[in-house]
Design goal:
Distance between the termini of chain B: 107 Å
Helix content of chain A: over 70%
Radius of gyration of chain A: 16 Å
Shape of chain B: elongated
Strand content of chain A: under 5%
Structural class of chain B: mainly alpha
Largest interface: A-B, 33 and 25 residues
Oligomer: heterodimer
Order of helices and strands of chain A: HHHHHHHH
Order of helices and strands of chain B: HHHHHH
Shape of chain A: globular
Number of strands of chain A: 0
Helix content of chain B: over 70%
């Protein structure tokens, strides 16, 4: 594979990988620990898989789930309530209010929808690749993505309307 | 609805996820640097192990093959019988008795007498019969049973 060095892979996918890990763990530091373990796992066995990009994201998901199990964490939603995350998921150069609204809307999604949005939008994976990473059918991946976008649109619209009223 | 989705997707895609920290990059670089020599060592050892195994198997084959050929040849030499002796009707043999049996009981009696005379010519011959003759009296006795 051209440009097959780990820095290229990390530069291309690193931000999306951390964002994906944040869907399962409650702090950025934990998310980076998960990404570190997943990336090493990916790099050592990348040549044995047909779709390396899909495998990389599935490694992050697998490590995050292992992390949850090993620490006997509660579900993502319970963690959100117990320890609300104040750090933004996105770079600070964006418009602050809209970025914060999207942050919040993404947190509102069930994890099985949020992970697909992250893989599709920021990981730039196709539905077959997402399906492979999550071990589901491409149709299921596509329908979950549509549900997620509908939910995001609804939440963002409500927040926008509420803000206008204020 | 599709337009709404497209607009939303575009807006989401325009946001850039926060970049990983430089500490994360440093930790990964350190860990991969520690792993790489181990991987190279394993890559070098595998062909060596395969070559050694093949060489060992070839040596064993070379050592075992001559012993196997001797084992197969020896019994044939040990039990070989000359054909002239095996098919001589004057000598008692499976072949001569089989031939007499397929003929008649008289032929078998004759052969037995001949062989008895051949083995001990000093002893008096006592003619024997291999089978009782099948008479109507015997048949009646069998019927009574």
């Amino acid at each position: 594979m051209a440009g097959d060095d780990w820095q290229t892979w990390f530069d291309r996918h690193g931000p999306a990988l951390v964002l994906l890990a944040r869907q399962y763990v409650c702090s950025r530091a934990d998310a980076e620990d998960v990404v570190q373990e997943a990336f090493i796992r990916f790099w050592r066995s990348r040549e044995r898989v047909a779709e390396p990009a899909a495998y990389l994201f599935s490694c992050v998901r697998g490590c995050a789930l292992d992390w949850q199990r090993s620490r006997q964490r509660r579900t993502h939603r319970e963690e959100q309530v117990a320890r609300p995350e104040t750090e933004s998921l996105f770079a600070k150069a964006e418009q602050n209010e809209r970025r914060a609204a999207i942050d919040a809307a993404l947190h509102e999604l069930p994890v099985e929808q949020a992970e697909i949005v992250v893989m599709k939008i920021w990981g730039r994976l196709s539905f077959p690749e997402i399906a492979q990473a999550l071990e589901i059918s491409p149709n299921t991946a596509a329908s979950r993505y549509r549900y997620a976008l509908a939910k995001l649109r609804e939440v963002l619209h409500e927040e926008h309307s509420g803000g206008a009223k204020l | 609805m599709n337009d709404d989705f497209d607009a939303l997707e575009s807006e989401l895609a325009s946001l850039t996820p926060a970049a990983p920290s430089s500490q994360l990059r440093g930790r990964i670089a350190e860990q991969l640097a520690a792993i790489a020599p181990v991987d190279r060592k394993h890559t070098w050892r595998l062909p060596l192990a395969i070559t050694a195994a093949v060489a060992l198997a070839a040596s064993l084959l070379v050592m075992l093959l001559p012993q196997n050929s001797t084992t197969f040849v020896a019994p044939a030499q040990e039990f070989a019988t000359p054909p002239a002796q095996a098919f001589d009707p004057a000598l008692p043999s499976v072949w001569s008795y089989h031939r007499a049996l397929t003929g008649s009981s008289a032929a078998l009696d004759s052969l037995l007498n001949q062989h008895a005379a051949t083995r001990s010519s000093d002893e008096p011959l006592s003619p024997t019969t291999a089978f009782r003759s099948f008479t109507s009296a015997n048949q009646a006795a069998l019927g009574e049973l």
